[in-house]
């Protein structure tokens, strides 16, 4: 029997990526919906083969307690709402898979971790790229020593966003602009590719003057993270540039180019290194798989086997703390130290 998920929020990520991905899952299935729109939810339930009685409004979320088919919830609401629904899920004994960014501040992240620990339910942040096979191959290569000592990462997550108003332009609902929404992928990649934690950041934010969308949140955030080994990771994220989602990793003996690293599909990996007298440029072939399905199946396996997810709440909290240091650096125009992880609370 597959692990049953209740889908909380039927916006774009749920409708366009996650619900369709269940068709490619082996261990996870959608069994309930929680939505603010009864007509939309009824239609989606019919399309996905979900029982009409398993569709609930937000106010009646706690009815999931009486539905034995629901073992986990997937939270796909505006960022500031993740905490409330994670705590409500933990309170009725359901495991939590929450979208990224985990929340809008580190206090909320810590509260989510505590609530899930108290209730003894799993908590996973939907860092899909860490389940995507080409990114995983890049991680293996980076950590195999084949590139030599890692020196530089350069990542971009750029897109041209449409007009508002929408929750992404609200500081209260989103927590920030391009950084927590898409710059987060660059930050997370710097950490998972290097396997190291940053110790200091220098950042700059920019918003076009007079653009009402960016009255509260940044349009662009550029940052450089310094790691203890000397590894430097530089990233640009923006809502105001033509789409670019690539990541380059340079080591002393070789480098990687991950094209469309952070896209929903279409990742490509090239490996450059010296061989004998000349350099080689090798395309690494990997059979593609749906990263959303891999992510959902990972959560389902963790629920079944009572295992800690590969991207637990602590991973979301760490990124949030680093994003807060990035924000302070951009605000004050100076380098900001990043506090080390407590020795007794490792991310993994
Ligand atoms: P969306 O705007 O398309 O959907 C948000 C949903 O929340 C809608 O169904 C909306 O009705 C509902 N909602 C409930 N209360 C709301 C309120 N007060 N204000 C606005 N909407 C409210 O957003 P989305 O793109 O689906 O993003 C949802 C979450 O998923 C966010 O946390 C986002 O960062 C994350 N996300 C992740 C990925 C990914 O690749 N992993 C991609 C996109 C979005």
UniProtKB/TrEMBL annotation:
Q: Where is the Gfo/Idh/MocA-like oxidoreductase N-terminal domain?
A: 4-127
The GO terms describing molecular function are: nucleotide binding; oxidoreductase activity
Q: Which residues form the GFO/IDH/MocA-like oxidoreductase domain?
A: 136-256
Q: Which UniProt keywords apply?
A: Oxidoreductase
Show the segment(s) annotated as Disordered: 333-348
In which family does this protein belong, per the annotation? Belongs to the Gfo/Idh/MocA family.
Q: What is this protein called?
A: Gfo/Idh/MocA family oxidoreductase
- The species this protein belongs to is Roseicella frigidaeris
- First and last residues shown, out of full length: 71 to 418 of 425
